[in-house]
Amino acid sequence: AQSVTQLGSHVSVSEGALVLLRCNYSSSVPPYLFWYVQYPNQGLQLLLKYTSAATLVKGINGFEAEFKKSETSFHLTKPSAHMSDAAEYFCAVSPPGTYKYIFGTGTRLKVLA
Amino acid sequence: DADVTQTPRNRITKTGKRIMLECSQTKGHDRMYWYRQDPGLGLRLIYYSFDVKDINKGEISDGYSVSRQAQAKFSLSLESAIPNQTALYFCATRSLGTETGELFFGEGSRLTVL
Q1: Is B42 within 8 Å of A104 when comparing Cβ atoms?
Q2: Closest Cα to residue A46, out of B100, B71, B10, B27?
Q3: Distances (CA, A) of B7 to A113, B85, B106
Q4: Is the CB of B102 inside 8 Å of chain A's CB atoms?
């Protein structure tokens, strides 16, 4: 069965520091992978997605993620955190040929001034 | 206006009451989903629908029912609300045309059952 693990329910970084949010998946075949962001009192919006093209995926707001099949990982990074990046981030997988989206439990990012 | 609109945005009700959460979309998407979000649990799928005549249970459908009144409308009902159904509920849509398509979410409906 497919699953998603996000290490760290809460992550704090200083403004200007590197952001690294971890996501590992379990799947018998390489799935499609997504990162969503949820700002307070809003729905989720897509940051980026991996769909078996380039393994390094660039998204909105300076975020990127790298698909590593050998590590079954899809970690989200941003070189320099901004205060506006404070939000909750969700990793999700969708096995090819299915309707399903399996979400991780989320990581709340706090950016310290 | 939002592409995916949920009403109400906030609702407080009492145990045993019937509640309906409504979702409408202007994206023209075939697929619609209802998710529930609880702190520390992420999003869990309640029901999904591929078209008006195709409705399917998700992983946590007990205590819920849905209605797809039209391609653009998908309602979630709690026939007899209980406190552990207190949560943030999201409607989402996806285009049928692409397998790798993203989900588009509404802004959520926060339900509190006392």
Answers
A1: yes
A2: B100
A3: 36, 17, 10
A4: yes
Q: Which two tokens stand for residue A78?
A: 């941003």
B31 touches A: beta carbon within 8 Å:
yes
B97 and chain A in contact, CB less than 8 A: no
Chain A hits for B108, CB-CB cut-off 8 Å, are: 41-43
Comparing C-alpha atoms, which of A26, A101, A40, A107 is closest to residue B104? A101
- Three-class secondary structure of residue B83 per DSSP: helix
Mean of pLDDT over chain B: 92
Range of weakest confidence among A76-85, B47-56, B96-105: B96-105
Question: What is the DSSP code string of A3-68?
Answer: EEE-S-SEEEEETTSPEEE--EEE-SS--EEEEEEE-TTS-EEEEEEE-SS-SEEE-GGG-EEEEE
Tokens describing residue A57: 């995926």
Scan residues 63-102 of A and list those with Cβ closer than 8 Å to B: 90, 94, 96-97, 99-101
pLDDT digits (tens, 9 = 90+) for A13-62: 999 999 999 999 987 777 889 999 999 888 899 999 988 778 899 999 99
Q: pLDDT per residue over A61-85, tens digit each?
A: 999 999 998 999 999 999 999 999 9
A to B CB pairs, distance under 8 Å = 48
Nearest one of A74, A76, A83, A75 to A113, comparing CA atoms: A83
